[in-house]
Amino acid sequence: MKRTLIQWISIALEASKVSHPKDRQHIAERWSDLLDDIENNLLLSGSGFDAGTALDREKSTNNKIVFTTSFHHMNEHGFYVRWTEHKVTLSPEFVGGPSIEVSGRNYRDIKEHIAHAFLCCLDTPEYNLHKAADGSTGFYWKLEEVVEEMETSSDTNK
C-alpha cells in the first residue's frame, strides 16, 4: 500500500509510544528505529537545509507533527550569509492535505519555500511497502518487516 511519508511518520510515532507487554517491547523499538531511518535518510537535508531536519518526537502528537530545521541563506553572489532556525508543524486537514505552519524569521520570504519543500517531501504518496528492486535491506524492507510483524502479532491476539 502506498502512503505518504507524513502518514508513515504518524503511524510510527503512535506505534512507538504504545505500551507493549514485556515480551513484545521490541515492536515499539522497531517503530522507533523506523523513525530514526526516516529522519536520517528521507527528511530534508542539503539545498539550504544544510544542518538536516529533526523530528521533534516530544512535541509531536496525534494531532500534529513537529520538525526542527535550519536554513542556510545565500546572497545573490552565491555566498552563504546567514542561518535561520525554524519549527515546521503539520496538522491533518480533511480537505486539501495537511495544514503547515513555519515559525522563525522570514528572511527573504523563506517560509513559503520551506513550507513548499516540506509538503513536497512529506505529502507525496510514493512510499511502498516493498523491498528495493536490487533486494537490498534498506528503508522499504524495514517497513515491510515491521508491518508484517505487527499484523502477525495482532492476529495472534484474536
- Helical segment count: 4
What is the helical fraction, as a range of percent? Answer: 25-40%
Which class of secondary structure composition applies to the elements? alpha+beta
- Please tell me what the overall shape is: elongated
Strand order of the largest sheet: 1-2-3-4
Order of helices and strands: HHEEEEHH
Total number of distinct structural domains: 1
How many β strands by DSSP?
4
**Approximately how much beta-strand content do the residues carry?**
15-25%
Largest sheet: 4 strands, antiparallel
In whole angstroms, the N-to-C terminal distance is 24 Å
Mean pLDDT: 82
Q: Radius of gyration in whole Å, from Cα?
A: 18 Å
Low-pLDDT residue spans: 128-132
Descriptive notes:
It is a single chain. This protein is of the alpha+beta class. It has one domain (5-156). It has 4 helices and 4 strands. A hairpin with a 7-residue loop joins strand 3 (80-91) and strand 4 (99-102). Helix 1 (5-17) runs antiparallel to helix 2 (25-41). Residues 128-132 have low confidence and may be disordered.
